[in-house]
Write a sequence for this structure.
């Protein structure tokens, strides 16, 4: 079962959350878009209200689940925008469905796989959560997602995200850590996707480094770098990122 929200009327627009997030992260972000789109926000398995049966899931399996969900909902050629892990899922879905998607967006995400250093960090995180649990992990995980100069002003938001993240199931968190660690290079998918493509990158994003994002730019129809922003542009620069997404969506109506 995939839990989701639906708001508005018009062409389908799907937002996919990141790691240890849920569909509620988009609640202050989507209002403007529901005036001319049917906006869907889902919970990935193991997060929010979507259960994960078992202890393993791959990005490819996640993409199949979402494709099946799209078919059940009767959604044809949605525009899909994913944050972080949600971007990895978006690319797996694009590889699976091709022109079955109208457009795709990476919101602080990348088509590149983990390098060896990042894989080592994932393994350390897996070991930490197995030993100490999700709650203790979330306390230290969320603050660095924001640019350092933003953290004081964003203290309430950070607490909200920590609280929401603690609702994530332990098996879901561990399964997606392994799925992110083991994901394949999908730069060819990004390069060859025929529809419009959006990438939003943060100047101080420690999770997806700016130099990696810039390697996507030649193959990206809408590329944006946000000054003074970390990994959470929808909260750190909400009006700016809404405007960027709006410009991207306007491409489809021309």
């Amino acid at each position: 079962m995939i839990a989701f929200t639906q708001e508005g009327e018009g062409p389908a627009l799907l937002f996919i959350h990141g790691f240890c997030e849920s569909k509620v992260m988009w609640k202050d972000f989507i209002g403007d878009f529901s005036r001319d789109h049917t906006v869907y926000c889902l919970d990935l398995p193991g997060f929010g209200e979507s259960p994960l049966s078992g202890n393993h899931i791959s990005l490819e399996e996640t993409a199949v689940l979402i494709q099946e969900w799209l078919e059940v909902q009767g959604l044809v050629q949605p525009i899909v925008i994913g944050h972080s892990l949600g971007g990895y899922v978006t690319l797996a879905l694009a590889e699976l469905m091709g022109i079955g998607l109208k457009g795709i967006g990476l919101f602080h995400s990348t088509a590149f796989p983990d390098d060896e250093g990042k894989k080592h960090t994932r393994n350390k995180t897996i070991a930490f959560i197995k030993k100490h649990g999700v709650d203790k992990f979330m306390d230290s995980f969320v603050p660095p997602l924001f640019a350092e100069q933003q953290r004081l002003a964003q203290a309430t938001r950070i607490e909200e995200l920590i609280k929401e993240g603690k609702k994530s199931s332990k098996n879901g968190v561990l399964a997606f850590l392994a799925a992110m660690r083991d994901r394949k290079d999908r730069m060819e998918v990004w390069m060859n996707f025929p529809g419009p493509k959006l990438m939003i990158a943060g100047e101080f994003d420690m999770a997806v480094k700016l130099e990696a994002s810039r390697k996507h730019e030649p193959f990206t129809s809408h590329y944006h770098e946000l000054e003074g922003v970390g990994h959470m542009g929808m909260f750190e620069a909400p009006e700016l990122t809404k405007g960027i997404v709006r410009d991207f969506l306007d491409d489809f109506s021309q």
